[in-house]
């Protein structure tokens, strides 16, 4: 549950990184950081809080360089302590390295113990430092970044999307299952690697494509090349990115998230129609679903809850107490739209159920006579081990409860979750290529005590498969490739 970005641009990168992180703020609100390279040394600034609270013009002007990476963090694993704020900068055998990661490893304990038995010292409790250890160890053996990434993909089990700089060269790579999103874009003078396309949009750039699972992207002053390091027999794109986490205007693995959610809303109406006066979203995560429901059902779309735009996402607040306190401040009912009305309340998901119960209570207190809840995800029945803060089974309201029991607990007039088949159809990605562990309890990687559905991964050895790509913009000078395939 983090956001990452890497940029190379001859005109400087600090302000571009700032705007990109601003666009990715929804992926993490606990801390943020930017690291840049000026050709000789790194410049780094990071801190706790929101992007706008950490950086200003003076700080950004001091972050000199034509290449850099940035990170916004939500601490799924590793306490929210200053030493865990990314990016991490360090020097190793005359190499200067900066690294940031979005993901969650499930074999981090065993790897950390193995390194500690060798005498290695860790300064943080994050997976990112562990990934850096794997990379630097291989660099000491072969001196080859491609081999270091190859070793990461062999050793690391879980999700990881990584951006890093090594001696001023920008790299990005994605785990072989493609669990966490990553894409490539182009601006006027530069190239961008980011978690979501919205970061590229914020810079006025053009989305080129997604980074393929198991692929390494390498960008230096000569241009960009990509290498396929590993190939899995199937993918495992995180289904929760489409349900909630990604911004609605993002394109994730070829699918526009807004259209996915609107289609889900339409399918909700088909699966569970109801007579009502209006369709009301839980803003903002339920808006696209509610529009789809309204269009399909012909029931008017009416905003009846007004969101305080200065509040963050309650789902990613660090404690349940803070989430509950935030609901009243965040959402205010429009009483004239609710009094004596029958309302279809549409939301993206129900996790613990406490927030849903409070929202329904607010609507009932405003005078609504019926509140029919429609949910854009199937019931969440299992925790996530791969980077989304879905809690333990004991905290999940749908664990060992059927839909009717959940309805009674949240005090809804009726309740319906989208079916898994309809959700997969709306996303448009084959079911076998989605990670649905939080919905089914079956995970794409081996997790002790959990059901797993393994995927064979072929690791390309020797000469990695290099993909040569040519990106041209209208009215621009065509780019050329040299003998090594650089663009």
Rg of Cα set: 23 Å
CATH 2nd-level architecture of the largest domain: 4-Layer Sandwich
Count the helices. How many? 16
| Secondary-structure-derived class | alpha+beta
Biggest beta sheet summary: 7 strands, antiparallel
* Average pLDDT taken over every residue: 90
General shape? globular
Could you give the distance between the termini?
32 Å
CATH homologous superfamily placement of the largest domain: Aminohydrolase, N-terminal nucleophile (Ntn) domain
The helicity comes to 25-40%
Low-confidence stretches: 471-487
Count of beta strands: 28
Using the coordinates shown, work out and report the CATH topology of the largest domain. Answer: Glutamine Phosphoribosylpyrophosphate, subunit 1, domain 1
Total count of domains: 2
- Work out the strand percent: 25-35%
Q: Strands of the biggest beta sheet: in what spatial order? A: 3-2-4-1-10-9-11
């Amino acid at each position: 549950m983090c956001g990452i970005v890497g940029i190379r641009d001859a005109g400087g990168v600090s302000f571009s990184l700032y705007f990109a992180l601003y666009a990715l703020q929804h992926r993490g609100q606990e801390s943020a950081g930017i690291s840049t390279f000026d050709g000789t040394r790194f410049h780094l600034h990071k801190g706790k809080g929101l992007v706008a609270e950490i950086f200003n013009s003076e700080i950004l002007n001091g972050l000199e360089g034509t290449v850099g990476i940035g990170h916004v963090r939500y601490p799924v694993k590793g306490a929210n302590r200053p030493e865990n704020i990314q990016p991490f900068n360090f020097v190793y055998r005359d190499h200067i390295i900066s690294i940031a990661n979005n993901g969650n490893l499930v074999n981090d304990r065993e790897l950390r113990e193995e390194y500690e038995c060798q005498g290695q010292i860790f300064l943080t409790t994050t997976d990112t430092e562990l990934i850096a250890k794997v990379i630097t160890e291989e660099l000491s053996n072969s001196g080859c970044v491609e081999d270091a990434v190859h070793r990461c993909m062999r050793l690391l089990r879980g999700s990881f999307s990584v951006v890093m700089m090594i001696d001023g060269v920008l790299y990005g790579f994605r785990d072989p299952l493609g669990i966490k999103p990553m894409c490539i874009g182009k601006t006027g003078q530069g190239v961008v690697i980011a978690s979501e396309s919205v970061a590229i949009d914020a810079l006025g750039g053009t989305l080129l494509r997604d980074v393929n699972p198991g692929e390494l992207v390498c960008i230096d002053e000569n241009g960009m090349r990509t290498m396929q390091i590993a190939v899995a027999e199937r993918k495992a794109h995180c289904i929760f990115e489409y349900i909630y986490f990604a911004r609605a205007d993002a394109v994730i693995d070829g699918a526009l998230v807004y259209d996915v959610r609107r289609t889900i809303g339409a399918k909700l109406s088909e699966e569970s129609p109801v007579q009502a006066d209006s369709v009301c979203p839980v803003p903002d995560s339920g808006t696209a679903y509610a529009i789809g429901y309204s269009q399909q059902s012909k029931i008017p779309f009416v905003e009846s809850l007004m969101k305080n735009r200065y509040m963050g996402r309650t789902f990613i607040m660090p404690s349940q107490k803070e989430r509950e306190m935030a609901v009243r401040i965040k959402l205010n009912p429009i009483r004239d739209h609710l009094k004596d009305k029958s309302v279809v309340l549409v939301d993206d998901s129900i996790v613990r159920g406490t927030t849903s119960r409070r929202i329904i209570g607010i609507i009932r207190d405003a005078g609504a006579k019926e509140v029919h809840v429609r949910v854009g995800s199937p019931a969440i029945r299992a925790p996530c081990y791969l980077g989304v803060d879905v809690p333990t089974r004991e905290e999940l309201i749908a664990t060992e409860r059927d839909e009717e029991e959940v309805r009674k607990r949240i005090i809804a007039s009726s309740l319906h979750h989208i079916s898994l088949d309809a959700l997969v159809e709306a996303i448009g990605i084959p079911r076998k290529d989605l990670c649905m562990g939080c919905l089914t309890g079956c995970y794409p990687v081996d997790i002790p005590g959990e059901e797993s559905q393994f995927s064979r991964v072929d690791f390309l050895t020797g000469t990695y498969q290099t993909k040569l790509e040519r990106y041209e913009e209208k009215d621009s000078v065509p780019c050329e490739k040299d003998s090594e395939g650089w663009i």
